[in-house]
Specification:
Length: about 240
């Protein structure tokens, strides 16, 4: 568990990254973390290791993890809510969200805005899809990736180099078109471009599709759209 108001947060972040190796690092209320602590995640998210430097020397730890983070849209939690008014001072919500830097968000493949549950959803008791079924689908997708990557140094799409992913992901003409369009419309960085390809390849694997179709690429790019809109608003 991480916490947000400790003078040793940078140290906590360094060790948490390494402790989460091959697992999940979940940061709740991520915008409450100190910015330098969050920026320290960029190296492990990119390289899969972290270097802890002290006066006596530097030590490298493996730190390849899945980062999951959650945040309210503003300090009061109601910015953009159709039912309740945000009580924060003007521009406070934007300042709150800007605690996450563009380079850090560029390393986050899936960004989702989760609206409040409706009354029907709160009162309803319809069961969702069972975890067992989802697990089977994920395991099958992982197996497809292992089979495709057999003989290489990697076992899943996320860990492949960008150039390799672009060359081997089998994009259809439609998928290429969506990707090409997004370079301008979403102002994709080189990193964002490669990550979108890998996410689209993974969505195709989850559906058991040999090729990455237009719909797979469109969905993958949609997960990056929130970041692009914020950047466009900042530029405008
Ligand atoms: Zn608010």
């Amino acid at each position: 568990m991480l916490w947000s108001s400790s003078s040793c947060l940078v140290s906590v972040e360094e060790h948490s990254s390494a402790l989460a190796h091959n697992g999940v690092l979940f940061l709740d209320e991520v915008t409450e973390f100190r910015r330098d602590a969050l920026e320290g995640l960029r190296q492990p998210l990119e390289d899969g290791h972290i270097v802890v430097a002290r006066a006596s020397g530097a030590v490298e730890f493996p730190a390849r993890f899945t980062l999951v983070a959650a945040s309210n849209p503003c300090p009061c939690g109601f910015e953009g809510d159709p039912k309740r008014a945000c009580r924060c001072a003007p521009n406070r919500a934007m300042a709150y969200q800007q605690r996450l830097s563009g380079p850090l968000l560029d390393r986050v493949d899936i960004q989702l805005s989760i609206p409040r549950l409706s009354r029907a959803e709160l009162l309803g008791c319809e069961p969702g899809e069972r975890s067992e079924a989802i697990r089977n689908r994920v395991e099958q997708a992982r197996e497809r990736q292992r089979a495709r990557l057999r003989g290489t140094a990697w076992t899943c799409n996320a860990r492949t180099p960008g150039r390799f992913a672009r060359r081997t992901s089998l994009l259809t003409a439609d998928a290429e078109r969506y990707l090409s369009g997004a370079v301008d419309s979403l102002a994709l960085s080189g990193r964002g471009f490669d990550r979108a390809v890998k996410v689209a390849r993974t969505i195709a694997d989850l559906e058991g599709s040999e090729r990455v179709e237009g719909g797979h690429m469109s969905e993958a790019l949609g997960y990056r759209a929130a970041l692009a809109k914020e950047e466009a608003a900042a530029v405008g």
